[in-house]
Amino acid sequence: MRFFLLDAGKQPLFAPADIPGNVNLKPLHHHDRVIGYVGFLPHQRLSDERQLRFQKEQQLALVLVGGVVLLLAAGFSLSLANRLVRPIKALAAASGRLAAGEFSTRVPVTSTDELGHLARDFNALALTLEKNEQARRQWVADISHELRTPLAVLRGEIEALQDGIRQPTPDSINSLHGEVQRLGRLVNDLYQLSLSDLGALTYRKEEIDVARLLSEALDSYSPEFAAKEIALANDILPETTIKVFGDPERLRQLFVNLLENSLKYTEQGGKLEVRLVGSEGQVTIDIEDSAPGVPESELIKLFDRLYRVDASRNRSAGGAGLGLAICRNIVEAHAGTITALTSPLGGLWIRIVMPLSGRC
Questions:
Q1: CA–CA distances in Å: residue 86 to residues 16, 81, 108, 113, 115
Q2: Other C-beta atoms within 10 Å of 263: how many?
Q3: Could you give the residue range(s) of every CATH 3.30.565.10 domain in the chain?
């Protein structure tokens, strides 16, 4: 029953039990008055052969399209997953090698996305660790060499005394004492440097006059410079007052180390110039000496531990290559900077810049 008939009140006269609410009704008129409604129910299922064939073709097409889309999605997903997993696996394997101590490990950078950035950061980390490991090995080798030299001298001289080759004269005793002093200075410098690296070096800061502190250090070394015929030029006026917030003992150690360097390595008859200028919230200290100089390519290495320039520094002068490293740590602890330049006088130019009191 696809046709149904309703009366004027839309009550079923000839109709199925359930009539859909959205079915279209056609009103029936008699003398301009609606006497009922007639409706036509749609098919609930297909029965025509052409309709059934069309439905079957559509279902087959949907299955084929769905299968093709699924295969394409699976292929793309596998390719994308392989592209994502490959660099992650490479990073994981490289991390394992790096943790095992292979600091030369590197991973290829094949993209510019986040994984590419991660690979570049990993390579930068590996390079830093490799440099640190090389520096550590060099540091151990240099310390061993520095300690071995005075110990070998002491052993040789003591064995010579034991065998009767040398007699315990004042000269031989003074030679032994000199080697012991050199060894003591080296051990003390190493201790000071290790304390500074660990942050355990004690600083008792207060507001001090850096001009007066530098003048006192220069006055104490004036006789030694005069004895070596090194002209000392000092432009610090007696009334100059420049306040900084720092540790007077550590800053005195800084100035003593720098003056010791100039005294040891400046040739006899040379010149030393010291300048101090306070301006724009900072104080600048320049210490310049005459020949011998330092090659420009070596200037950046002067503050490395146990570093020497062969042309100007040797063990007979007493330098272990730790003084400038300690100076750098002291300056940095006072929020300053220290740099090495080529002096117009033909030697080394050390420049120290520190903030004035209240600017740290």
A1: 67, 8, 11, 14, 10
A2: 17
A3: 206-355
305/302 Cα distance (integer angstroms):
8
- Whether 258 and 327 have beta carbons less than 8 Å apart is answered as yes
Q: Measure the CA angle with vertex 7, ends 4 and 9; round to 5°.
A: 125
Instruction: Say which residues have a Cβ less than 8 Å from residue 219's Cβ, sequence separation at least 6.
Output: none
d(CA 107, CA 123): 7
Q: Token match 């040739």: residue?
A: 267
Taking the CA atoms of residue 18, residue 22, residue 23 and residue 25 in that order, the dihedral angle to the nearest 10 degrees is: 110
| Separation between Cα atoms, residue 52 and residue 46, nearest integer Å | 6
Q: Is the peptide bond before 27 cis (omega within 30 degrees of 0)?
A: no
Q: What is the CATH number of domain 114-198?
A: 1.10.287.130
Residue 342 and residue 292: Cα distance in Å, rounded?
11
pLDDT digits (tens, 9 = 90+) for 79-115: 877 777 888 888 899 999 888 888 888 988 888 888 8
> Is residue 312's pLDDT more than 60?
no
Indicate whether 154 pLDDT > 70: yes
Homologous superfamily, domain 206-355: Histidine kinase-like ATPase, C-terminal domain (3.30.565.10)
b/e per residue 206-227 (b: at least 16 CB within 10 A): eebbbbebbbebbeebeeebee
Listed as own residue / partner, the contacts of 127-132 with beta carbons closer than 8 Å and 24 or more positions apart are 129/98, 129/103, 130/103, 130/104
Q: Locate CATH 1.10.287.130 in the chain.
A: 114-198
Give pLDDT, residue 43: 67
And the tokens for 85? 């997993």
At residue 4, does pLDDT exceed 70? yes
Full-model pTM: 0.55
Residue type, 227: A
